[in-house]
Design a protein that fits this description.
Low-confidence stretches of chain A: none
Strand content of chain A: 25-35%
Structural class of chain A: alpha/beta
CATH architecture of the largest domain in chain B: 3-Layer(bba) Sandwich
Number of strands of chain A: 18
Distance between the termini of chain A: 72 Å
Strand content of chain B: 15-25%
Oligomer: heterodimer
Shape of chain B: globular
Mean pLDDT of chain A: 93
Strand order of the largest sheet of chain B: 8-7-17-18-19-16-20
Distance between the termini of chain B: 24 Å
Number of domains of chain B: 3
Radius of gyration of chain B: 23 Å
Bound molecules: flavin-adenine dinucleotide, FE2/S2 (inorganic) cluster
Shape of chain A: globular
Largest sheet of chain B: 7 strands, mixed
Mean pLDDT of chain B: 93
Largest interface: A-B, 71 and 89 residues
Number of helices of chain A: 9
Largest sheet of chain A: 6 strands, antiparallel
Strand order of the largest sheet of chain A: 4-3-6-1-2-5
């Protein structure tokens, strides 16, 4: 090509090295602040150091723990009503975690006296919930992650008419939402459909009713009981109940939180509610099911037995026993090996590991695995069950700080 | 000698498994140097990743790979991947871009440009009669620049001045010029200039400061080699590179954050991880910014030459971004979307747009892609995946109160969706099934980006290839022995392709040094 006529041209090139040197020489020596890095740390801290401020019994088997920032740590990160924190614990030789929804409202976490509340139902035989009931009292230190999860109202995605469907302790995210909406947002309205076993199973009734009284146009609550007390509606959270309490189904977003059996049931019932689009139905994840063998797609020929998992961490291998009806993550934790976890439902990918060999059963309800990972044999051990002897490579994890 | 208790030794330690880190890891391993890659996150790839929400898997960052190329016309990146034998399925992007301006004092544009030399020139002539000569000249100039760089790379800096000035004279004459100066010198019609500058937001510097060499090469490789995306999001590339590194004997450890790069007497002697492990090494390849390395990683601080800070402060950090990832419950056909890549700008006054990156006013730049237009089955039937990227400096988030953060990101996301509607007439908001919004704080958190900056240092004239080469003795890689930078802050410019190739280059250089010391 012909010679390009450019004013700066060659001359500029000759000068360039000099100009660059000059600019560097004139630059200062100061370390620049990483302002956004600091904001990010505040919003998404690697771990939270908390202290139990107070404990409140909601009934015999449910307690609410108010948690505040430990002395010398920063203020609590902001969150969206419906998100959870993952509590990290060392019990015996096992390091484990459990997700608990923040049942208090985001505005209550603001400022120096801010707090999170979590509401824990004691599960008979439950490792962590029993541990918490036995050990957490005022002043006890608690290790947790910052808030996580996608179960929250999104103004661009969701309808302004919100239906909250709660089963039992599944009320926790809705307590947070109702409190927050009443305090800060008046755009949307929320109808709470609350399915309970009996009167004793109902949580936060008085508190929620007070809020409804002061904002009657925003909130409504209807309970349904399997064993109803006098004068209360008896029955189940089913299509009939939903249809009889709501109109204009196409313009609503349903947030659903409760035990996994309730989800299985509701998924069928919603087919009778009308032609709802998938975006209208948002189910919260709930951890591993109580009894995996009762799931519809549990392989008929799977035996309940002990198998062996060979676990590789940084090229060291460990042979550990595992049960076919417990997750691979549980087996790893029982053996005292470290594997980080957060949602324990297959969604977040924190426990992502590689299955080198072996038959497994995977719960795919909340399968957060990516296409390339599936092709290469990656699994999320929190939602994967070993059906035969297996070999699994897991990433190194960090031991929890402090106690 | 300090008495660190080293528990392991590695030929080379790579900090960060981003594009630069993975590419350098694979190059080192291929050349017989066993790298240890330490990655803080639970998954490799850095920006080259993906995430799942509901029934959608979103691409984190990649819009289109430059310099890959079809089988019979591979670009540098394509050759590099071929030589490694990467197992990744790539799909070609059909068109270059659709450029729409919505508040343009010079008249709004709505133009779709194709992805090949001849077609591009033809189409431009159609839109701007009389542009053919200058556009053809511009593109041949881009070609010459590309070939000159290939010549420089081949001769590893031992350049014959006669050849350079004789055969690549225009390269030499333009390498100190801005994009704007070159367009002006070619007397290109104004409208054609506006159309041709559409890619500017990929680099994030306005045409008055943007180095022509960098824009020209990008233009050339897109038109000559095409644009590609991996079938299974860029996570697939990261995973393929990881596999390859392991096969070749390298080690990649996830959840492993490096706290310090240990230096002594001006040399790297090892690294310390957050878990408290000390690892001995004489070579560190850092897939992080110099800002981050000098202010946080190098240890002890009094060993850092003050020149490092000066060098860093003399450079300008690229802007950060906000990305809105949207899963829609309508297909692209139902929505009436035909194009993959949309550039929607207020106008083609790139200087004005660039200035707006520093304020919290209305966003006036967006690059929006619809993945299904290239990979129809990337989401379930009857759905589609859209992602909108806008640029601004992270600093504009500094005065957003934490409790206002979520509201602010929803506000900007809505604005971007409405701007998309203004530009195309298509309202996607009613069909949003999943939405995720990333801000500079997200990138600072997940990728440890300094001030959330998503690229690297700005591709201005003074910080481009040639001036850096001319002052090489005083540049980063010669200030602390054994420390090199890869990725967006490496020796090439930023972007996917450049960051892979920066890793390839650094990997080769370190391997060569390694072999020398072994002898
Ligand atoms: C997003 C989310 C939000 C949630 N929110 C709430 C909430 O607000 N309130 C609430 O009450 N619950 C909530 N949960 C459920 C909660 O996380 C726990 O699952 C629940 O408290 C039961 O925990 P557990 O340890 O008591 O019982 P389990 O998890 O059932 O404990 C028994 C388990 O421990 C295993 N195990 C036994 N011994 C060992 C050992 N030595 N080492 C390792 N594992 C062992 C067993 O195999 C079994 O899997 C939420 C769950 C999710 C996913
Ligand atoms: S802990 Fe979230 S996927 Fe396993």
């Amino acid at each position: 090509m012909s010679k390009i006529k450019l004013i700066p041209g060659l001359f500029a090139l000759m000068r360039m090295a000099g100009t660059r040197k000059k600019r560097i020489k004139e630059a200062d020596f100061k370390i620049r602040n990483d302002i956004i890095g600091q904001i990010a740390k505040q919003m998404h801290p690697e771990s939270l150091s908390l202290v139990v401020h107070s404990v409140r019994a909601e009934n015999e088997s449910v307690r609410t723990y108010r948690l505040i920032s430990a002395p010398d740590s920063t203020s609590l990160p902001v969150f969206q009503a419906g998100q959870y924190i993952s509590i990290k614990l060392k019990i015996g030789k096992s390091q484990t975690s459990r997700a608990y929804t923040i049942s208090s409202a985001p505005y209550e976490a603001e400022g120096e006296n801010g707090y999170y509340e979590i509401t824990v139902r004691k599960k008979p035989g439950g490792l962590v919930s029993e541990y918490i009931f036995d050990n957490w009292a005022e002043g006890v230190g608690v290790n947790a992650t910052g808030p996580h999860g996608d179960f929250f109202y999104s103004p661009l995605r969701d309808y302004k008419d919100i239906v909250a469907i709660a089963g039992g302790a599944g009320i926790t995210p809705f307590r947070s939402m109702i409190k927050q909406f009443a305090e800060k947002e008046h755009e949307m309205n929320l109808t709470l459909l609350y399915g309970c076993k009996n009167e004793n199973d109902v949580l936060f009734e008085r508190e929620i009713d007070e809020i409804i009284k002061t904002h009657p146009s925003l909130f409504r609550r209807v309970n349904v009981y399997e064993n109803a007390p006098e004068g209360r509606p008896q029955g189940y959270l089913n299509a009939e109940f939903i249809n009889s309490n709501l109109e204009d189904m196409q313009n609503k977003t349903f947030f659903i939180c409760g035990p996994s059996v309730m989800y299985e049931f509701l998924r069928k019932e919603f087919l009778k509610v009308g032609n709802l689009r998938r975006k209208q139905l948002r189910y919260e994840v709930g951890g591993a099911p109580d009894n995996v063998t009762k799931r519809k797609d549990w392989p008929a020929n799977a035996e309940c037995k002990t198998v062996q998992i060979t676990v590789y961490i940084q090229n060291i291998s460990y042979d550990i026993p595992a049960s076919t009806i417990e997750t691979i993550l549980t087996a790893i934790e029982r053996a005292g090996l470290l594997l980080d976890s957060q949602c324990r439902s297959g969604e977040c990918g924190i426990c992502r590991s590689k299955l080198n060999e072996g038959d497994v059963y995977i719960i795919t309800d909340n399968d957060g695995r990516r296409a390339a990972d599936k092709e290469l044999g990656y699994i999320h051990p929190c939602s994967t069950y070993p059906l035969s002897d297996c070999r699994v490579t897991i990433p190194p994890s960090n031991p929890i700080k402090g106690r | 000698m300090s008495d660190y208790k080293f528990t392991r030794e590695a030929d080379a330690v790579i900090i960060g498994a981003g594009n630069g880190g993975l590419a350098s890891g694979a190059t080192l391993a291929k050349n017989g140097v066993k790298p240890l890659i330490l990655e803080k996150h639970s998954s490799p790839g850095g920006f080259a990743s993906s995430f799942v929400r509901g029934r959608f898997e979103f691409e984190t960052a990649l819009h289109e790979l430059a310099d890959y190329g079809p089988v019979d016309n591979r670009g540098n990146l394509g050759q590099f991947f071929d030589e490694l034998g990467l197992d990744v399925e790539f799909v070609a992007v059909p068109d270059a871009y659709r450029l729409i301006t919505v508040r343009d004092p010079e008249g709004n544009l709505d133009i779709t440009m194709p992805l090949s030399f001849e077609a591009y020139i033809e189409k431009m002539e159609e839109y701007v009669p009389g542009s053919k000569e200058s556009v053809t000249k511009y593109l041949s100039l881009c070609k010459e620049v590309y070939e000159a760089l290939a010549y420089l790379a081949k001769n590893k800096g031992n350049v014959d001045k006669e050849v350079l000035l004789g055969e690549y004279g225009n390269f030499v004459r333009t390498c100190a010029a801005t994009q704007q100066q070159v367009l002006k010198a070619l007397k290109m019609p104004k409208k054609a200039q506006r159309i041709l500058n559409a890619y500017w937001s990929y680099l994030g510097v306005d045409e008055h400061r943007l180095n022509f060499t960098i824009y020209g090469v990008m233009m050339y490789v897109y038109l000559e080699k095409g644009a590609y995306i991996p079938k299974l999001r860029s996570h697939e590339i990261s995973m393929a590179l990881e596999q390859k590194i392991r096969e070749l004997g390298g080690i990649l450890e996830l959840n492993s954050e490096v706290e310090h790069i240990l230096i002594e007497d001006g040399e790297v002697i090892g690294v310390k991880t957050k878990r408290g492990e000390y690892i001995k090494t004489s070579q560190v390849l850092a897939n992080v910014s110099q800002h981050m390395a000098y202010s946080n990683l190098l240890y002890p601080k009094n060993e850092i030459p003050s020149r490092c800070y000066q060098l860093t402060n003399a450079r300008i950090l690229s802007p950060s971004a906000m990305v809105v990832y949207v899963g829609l419950n309508k297909s692209v056909e139902e929505l009436g979307i035909k194009d993959y890549e949309f550039f929607i700008y207020d106008s083609m006054d790139t200087q004005e747009s660039y200035q707006s990156f520093s304020s919290r006013g209305r966003t006036n730049v967006q690059a929006t892609v619809f993945l299904n237009c290239v990979i129809p089955d990337c989401s379930p039937p009857g759905t589609s995946i859209m992602s909108i990227t806008t640029l601004h400096h992270g600093s504009i988030w500094a005065d957003v109160k934490p409790e206002e953060y979520f509201e602010e990101k929803e506000r900007i996301a809505e604005e971007l969706l409405l701007e998309f509607k203004k530009g195309t007439g298509i309202d996607v908001i009613p069909y949003i099934e999943e939405i995720e919004i990333a801000t500079p704080a997200t990138f600072a958190n997940i990728n440890r980006k300094y001030n959330g900056s998503i690229y690297g240092y700005e591709c201005e004239v003074l910080d481009s290839l040639i001036p850096k080469t001319m002052t090489i003795q005083d540049e980063d890689e010669n200030l602390i022995k054994g420390l090199s930078f890869v990725g967006g802050f490496g020796r090439r410019s930023h972007g996917f392709s450049a960051s892979y190739m920066s890793g390839e280059l650094a990997g080769r250089l370190v391997a060569a040094k390694w072999k020398e010391t072994k002898k």
